[in-house]
Structure formats: C-alpha cells, structure tokens
C-alpha cells in the first residue's frame, strides 16, 4: 500500500483515532496489528519472510545474551576458585557459543536477503518482500548490538516484532537502531495536541514534496530516461538535474511522512537527512544523505573491518614493506572499498549500482588523498573560507552527485557514460529545438509549479542551514492563527497541485525498491 | 482548566470548519461546469431542479434518448408530461440506478428505455461515468451506480470529495468556472438536448462483423433489474431503439431484444424499422450525419411515440391541469427562445 494511496491515508486516520482512544496498554498491540496488516496487504506471503527474520533474530539475540550472562555469572560465582588464565579460557570457550548463535542468525538473515535479491523472482516466485533490505539491516544491527552487549535483548517477541515491523519504516526506512527507537516505540502515550500537530505538520510537508515536486518531475524524468538514443546531449543535463531533484523530494518527502507518522504517535525517530544538497564535499554529502544507512555501514562494517586483527596485520605489513602512511591508510581504504561495494549492492544487484558504489569510493579516496593539498589551499587563500567559495563547493558537490545519480537511471553503464559524454559533443544542445522541453511530459505549468515548490523547499532548507534551527520550531513560536494559515496553505497546495488520482499514476517511492 | 479545554475544542472546531470551507470553495471552483463545450455532464442534475416531478413518462438511456425525443412536442401535441433522464454513454447499470433514483421522487406511468446500452457490459470510460454519476444526488442508488460503473481505477472517495478527482483542472480554469461556481446553466428542455442544425447522413461506415453478438451477463442482469423494478412499482415498460444509423445496431442484437421483450410481454419499437413511417429524412433530420436527430427529427420521433403512449399505455393528456400548463408555458417559451438562438447561431432561416 503506497503512502500516497487513499487506503493508506484511511489506515492512518483510523490508527490515529484508535491509538488515542484505546486504553494505553493496548497502544503497542494496536501498532503491531496495524503493522502486520499493512505488511500483509502488500502480499500475505511476505509475512513469512519478515516472520522468519523477527523470530530468528529475537531468539538468537536472547540466546547470545543468556550465554553471555551465564558466563559472567559462572565466573562471578567461581571467582575465588579460578585463576585469571582459567577465567580467560572459560570466557573464551563460552564465547564460542555466542559466536555460533550470532553467526548462524546472521548468515540465515543475510542469506535470505542475498537469495531473494540475487535470485529474485526465479527462486521465490513472488516479488521481493517489501522493505527486506531495510528490516534485515535493522535486525542485523540489533543482533550485533546485543552481541556487543551495547543493548539488552528484548525478551518480548511482540515488542521486538513491533520494533522491526513498525509500518512507516517498512517502505523506505530509515534503518532504526533499537536504542533510538524502542524507548518511545514501546512506551504508552497520552494525546498531546502540540506533539500530534507537529507530526501532522511533518506528514503534510512530506506529501507536499512527494506529490507536488517528486511525482511531477517524475513525469519528465520517465520520458528522458526511456530512450537514451533520443534524449542525449542537452537533454542529459536536464535528466541529471531533474532526477536529482526528484530523488531528493521523493526520498526526503517519504522520510518526512515516516517520521511525521511516528511523531504524531508520540514516537521519536532519528533524522535521515540533514539538508544534503548544502554539502560542500562528497564526504559531507554522505554524512547528510540517508544517514541511517551510512551510519549502519560505518558502525557494522567499516569499523569492525578496519579494526579487525586482519586489518591490523595488514597495516603492520604495509608499514614494514611500503610506508608508515600506507600502513595507516590501507586498512581504512580497504574497509571503505568493501563498504562502498556493499552499498552499491544494497541499492541493486545490477552492475550500474556496483559502478556507482565504486565511483563514490574513488572520489572519496582521491579527496582523502588530496586533503593535505586542500588544507594548504585553505590556509594560503583567505577567500577559500568565504561565502562565494563555499557556494562554489556546494554547487560542485551538487553537480558531482547529479552525475553519480545518473548511474541509478540506466542498467547499462555504457549508456550512462555515453550520455555523459554526449553533453560535451559539438551541437549537443541543438537537439533540444525550441519547445523540446515541453515535449517530455511536463507542461509549462508543471515547470512553474515544480519551480515554485522547489523555491519554497530551498528557502526552508536555507533557513535551517543558516540558523541550524528547524523551520517548524520557528513556526511554533508564532501564534496559532499563523501556524494554521501555513498548514492550510500547505494542505490546499498539496491537494490541488499534487500528482495523484485518475490520469496520474502516483509513483512508488524510489527507495522502496531497495 | 475546563475553560482551557472548551477554548481548545472551540479553536479546533473553527479551524476544521475554515479548512473545510476553503476546500469546499476550491472544489466548487475546480469541478467541471459543463456549460461550454461538453454540456452532457450537466444533464442528470437538472432533474432535481424540477419543482414538480410528477412526470407520467420517463425516458432513460444515452444520447439516443436525450437528443431524439422532444418532451415539448409530447406536451404540446398530446399533453404528455415527460422527462428524459439521459446522459452521455449511459450504461445499462447507470440507467437502472437512475430509474431507482427517479422513483424516489415519483412513480411514472411509463418508463421508456433505449436498449442500445445492452451492448456494453462494463463502463468504457471514467469520464462518461462522471458525467452520469456526478450529477446524481447522494443515495444508496448513487453508491450502487458508482460500484457498478467502476472502471477499475476509480475510488468512492473521489466521488465523495470530487476535489480529489478534479484537482488537476487548476490549469484549465476559465472565467466560466468562477461564474458557475454556485449556479448551473440549464442545458436541456426536460432532459432534451436540442440541436437545430442539420448534417446529412452521407458517410455511414459499414458495419464490422463481430465475433460474438450475445450481450454480456451484467447487461442482462441489469435489464432484468430494470424490468423487475418497473413491475414492482407498477410501471409500464417500453423498449425502444432510436433511429440512429451509427453506431451500427446489428440484427443479431435486435433479435435478442425482441425475444426478451416477447418473453416478458414488453413492447419494443425499433425506430430504425419505422423510420420511413415516421418520415425521418436523414438529409435534414440529423445534425451529425446520422448519429443523432436534430430538432426536426426529435419532433417527428415524439410525434410517433406520443400516440403510442397515449393509446397503448394510457398516458393521460394533462393539458387541462392549469398549474402544470403554466409551468409548461414557461418551458415552451425557453424552448422557443433556444430555437431562435440556435437558428441565429447556425445561420438557419
């Protein structure tokens, strides 16, 4: 069920009413039932996949925790009878059991994800289960955290099931951490108008971005990427910009809806974006874009890899045979390479996504290598710290992201490279004869509406970037009539200018396919 | 505390009312007005504007009824008080629900149903659905009509809140949308859509053979419903096929209708068979090359069916009803004004 379907909005209205009218102890069961119903409505067979993940990870985590506790208690009980070496040996032997539980659970869940994603339809005979990448990563994160003893395992299966299946996050994330989400998710909540209205405000903002901007631009983007042999040269420039803006409005809009729903229910979710198109470098961009995925790879792949005994040995070898600097960088770059390879695969198993991941790795590694030169440049030239140079860096990063995003659009990498080259060919812009941009599925009115909506989003984002205060917080300081006018305008604009209903095919969220 | 709660509830209620008010205004503005090019969408709702709905004859069907029979002629020449509940490409299930809807207000003596729609088992176009359903007043029959007409991608909520359907008209708005936000321009004369111009029927495309001439199950089901509804309400039913040359009416279809009519003792008139008797001249009596009658053709058809309604179905001559005659006088005046207007428009002497 799409976020943009009437059914989903109806489900939300019913949920909000019930959530704040049923006895508080029933709030959590209500959320679980709603989440499972929502998931089953996509395809009842999907429940088997998510069910296996929930049960195995919940069980595995408890077993790991029980085993860890048993070891500690045994050592505590026999602390006077055991020598330090005996204690170490006992702990090591006991830990093996945890490793077995951990490894088996991990392999099972990642195995299902890999099988479903790689074999897809051929193996399962059904579509890829909704949000499988998101919930598998969330489950694995939880399992690792329990294994590392940084969180306590959730003993209640329904409570754990809710953490994984909480429906707004199933479509496109974010990939929530247990210690971030669970406290408020598993608590009881009184109705608080200011909390509820804040959530609704965020939901509205999300729908505005999704329906007014993303789905409108999609009409043009779909045409532009449908035929690479026609839409080349100057058209590619349009594709780069329109797709990047569409992706932004689609993904951030969807996350606004997700976080807004949680907020309206009194549940706190971490932000997944911090104004990514204000990034001054690609590294900065990846600290601001899809934060939950990036931090997941950082905490559960990059750090464990770069600090593993294998990396340490590799580092030692590089220090001895190459240089001190190489010894420090090699494990980092190797881990980074693996992370970007996995990130590419996570987005899709086709070659274009792997190339996309590798290009990100390449640019980030080159930037890292050149960082001393950048530092010197900034020290030498004062203007490099000024607003004009900052604007240049933002635009440069935006262009780079636009180019990288083009690899999302075409499965055949040769198409993407060919199209990028076509921009610079002589006469490439003559392809776009007068009025050509009005023949790609967007009317002049569409450009105007999308343009005005993007300016509104830009003004909001600029203000937040400048003051580091949410516009919603600023709005909150205004009297109710002002807030009410803003909400009404947003609602009316979304209802009138949104792309939905007969004649339009409201699109899936782009990140839903991952 | 109590005061605060009451204040908050009041503010919430006022807020909701304001939002609903704004959305209502936006909806009124964005909904199609059906007064310029496509007027067919305004026909169904006009029925409710009739002060007295005690019509003796109700025509139901598509363009083959609302363009082919003149209720003014039926009144002037036979004193028959009739109304046409027609709409563009009205499907048989929509005819049934319109009949039920009509009976809520008044039970006529006769229902004249044009059987052309039997050929369609499902709706072919959401736009046509809208032109029939949007104008219906809310009742269980409208709900039934929406359900039966669904083309697959229609949602009930879009009928309840038409802004969800018509929001994309924001870039098509004209001054007409503002002018007719809260009023309606009458487009018919007791459901009759008048055209006075003529276009001879010269290039009628040949009929294409069909693989299967049998009507669909759903079409038969709703024909049964129309018949049963009339029987239960003691209404006489008359089937007609209007004298339109195109879309082609196949003999195989005609035979099925005849068999059904015979089975249930329902009179069936195929106007195509009696066109000569009526005196229809396809050079002068059609305005679109044989698809629909113009005023001249509609008058002839009314003159043909009038005596049948009176003699065989005992429809009364009500010209002695002073109040009714007075209301018809105004209608006749409007009708004649329209004739004059169209004659000037189409430059007809």
User: Care to count the β-strands of chain A?
Assistant: 0
- In the predicted model, the low-confidence regions of chain A spanning at least 5 consecutive residues are 505-509
Helix share, percent of chain A: over 70%
- Order of helical and strand elements of chain B: HHEHHEHEHHHHHHEHEHHH
* Contiguous uncertain segments of 5+ residues of chain B: none
Structural class of chain B: alpha/beta
Strand content of chain B: 5-15%
The major sheet of chain A is characterized as:
none
Shape of chain A: globular
Number of DSSP strands of chain B?
5
Write down the secondary-structure element order of chain A. HHHHHHHHHHHHHHHHHHHHHH
Please state the overall shape of chain B, judged from the principal axes of the Cα atoms. globular
Molecular structure report:
The complex is a heterodimer of chains A (514) and B (349). Helix content of chain A is 73%, strand content 0%. Chain A starts with 5 loop residues before the first helix and ends in a 17-residue tail after the last helix. Chain A folds into 3 domains: 21-185, no CATH class; 193-269 and 440-513, no CATH class; 278-411, no CATH class. Chain A has 22 helices and no strands. By secondary structure, chain A is mainly α. Residues 505-509 of chain A have low confidence and may be disordered. By secondary structure, chain B is α/β, with parallel strands linked by helices. Chain B has a single domain, classed as 3-Layer(aba) Sandwich (Rossmann fold), CATH 3.40.50. Chain B has helices at 2-30, 43-49, 63-66, 71-78, 92-103, 126-133, 140-149, 156-160, 163-166, 175-179, 217-232, 251-263, 275-278, 295-312, 322-345; strands at 57-61, 82-86, 110-114, 236-241, 267-270. A 5-stranded parallel beta sheet of chain B has the order 2-1-3-4-5, with helices on both faces. Chain B starts with a helix and ends with a helix. Chain A binds chain B through residues 6, 193, 443, 445, 480, 484, 488, 491-492, 495-504, and chain B through 8, 11, 15, 18-19, 22-23, 26, 30, 126, 153-155, 157-158, 163-165, 167-168, 170-171.
